[in-house]
Amino acid sequence: MPYVKTSTRTTRSGVVRYLQLAHNEWDAGTQRSRTRVLYNFGREDELDREAIVRLVTSLSRLLEPGQALAAAAQAGWEFVSSVPLGGAYVLDGLWRRLGIDAVIRGCVAGRRLDGRWLERTLFALAASRALAPCSKLAATGWVAGDVHIDGLDQVSDDACYRAMDELHAMEDDFGKKVYDNLANLLNLEVDLLFFDTTSTYFETEHAEEVLPRDQNGRRAEAGSEEAADEAAFRSRGKSKDSRPDLPQVIVGMAVTRDGIPVRCWCWPGDTGDQALIRQARDDMRERTLARVIWVGDRGFSSAQNRRHLMRAGGAYILGEKLRSAAPDIQAALGRQGRYRQVAENMHVKEVKLDDIDDRMVICFNPEAAVRDAANRDQLLTQLRDMIDGSDALSATGRARLSGVISTKPGLKKFMKTTASGLLRIDTARIKAEQRLDGKFLLRCGDARISATDIALGCKQLLEVERGWRDMKQVIDLRPVYHHLEDRIRGHVTLCWLALLLIRITETSTGQTWNGLRAELQRIHLGTFTGSHGTFTRRTQLTAGHKLIFKALDLPEPPLVVSAAPATP
User: Where are the domains of the chain?
Assistant: First the structure.
């Protein structure tokens, strides 16, 4: 193993010490160990100590953070342990900058409740969703032994559950104040809001008790004026996770054009999409007086929703179902006209219909058209292989084959049965589908937006899709380990807070959260103990770490975080 070898030489001016990086090797011929010099550092009094620091820092990157701290321990100090510091430090810095800590303490001011404890516990739960998603019970172990959170060394599971109950109790006031801070500090552009919903299911076969609820899906007193319906919170409905057999809840989210989630909602699992955007619009109207254009997919395009979104000067850009039999949809698709290219993979054509006030914009993506045609050819090849030779089957055999094909929606729509019971390819359906290759239809209720902005604005709806993907794959919205409605709502709010911090980090640095998290979690905090006491010290920062802190406008974490003298 290499080591630093010291040699001395006496000169007229005194004793001079020389340093060398050496390594002992076994000489099989002489049967003895020999010293091999790997590098000469030169005179100790002329040593380039900055170069040594750079070398040690570079070599430390090859070690685990805890090993690097242990290797750097000075004489008289014993390395005890280390935990990741960087990820929680960055999230905590953004949490404080957004004023979320002050909002929480303000919501419980005047009560016999430690606001500092509540705020630190809720931050720990939100940070765990972003850094190491786990149950609230497992989060207690994570806080105690796998992360450094300023002001919170440990927390019990009962404290976590109580904090979630408090978060739900102050949800409305808390959400409004956080939004106000976001709008002021980040200069949010909320002129364009993207809205979408998803579902998350529970691994149980039993739904909850049916209770009276108001028009927004919240519990209401039986017989009260607010009670508009009865529903169980965890209930079966149209699943967006392909699990209609399990109870679920519906989650909605509003996102800015920059991908910042500004609001999150939660509804009973059997709630349909059509009514949800109206509640979202009313809630956001209470938080901003600015004119907002709502962007949603085809699930929200009912006439009632369009009228509601146009209130108080609002507007909308909504997707429409291409295969709808509605007269205005068919008229728009059948209208002749030239497409205009507005982007590399986007062509648009605006259609004006005399009998409606809305503007209809048909968008065409050449690359998507090629994919649609290829997918259809693959399905047709599979269908031909299945029905080839079916004429020779009995009527019962053809009926059985038709039943098998009917379970495959992609194949079923291209097959028809003749009057004599024979199975054939539906050429008319193929031609109809070819007309729709690469196209999608948008409806806009604002006369001042250009067709280009309508098309590109709706394309940004992918930001919400990315948010749901991160909610389910990075933050782990599910599985949900809670059964009480208030805690399920609190869990969704914590996931929203985690996504909010993640998106701000990504937009500020231009990097993905997965890469940022891996880089930041290499910043560890080590604990050292000795006869003089105990102190904690972080690992050295790399150039990449410093760039992240600079992009986020956060100070670098202190080298020594804490120190305590030995007790007599």
Answer: 367-434
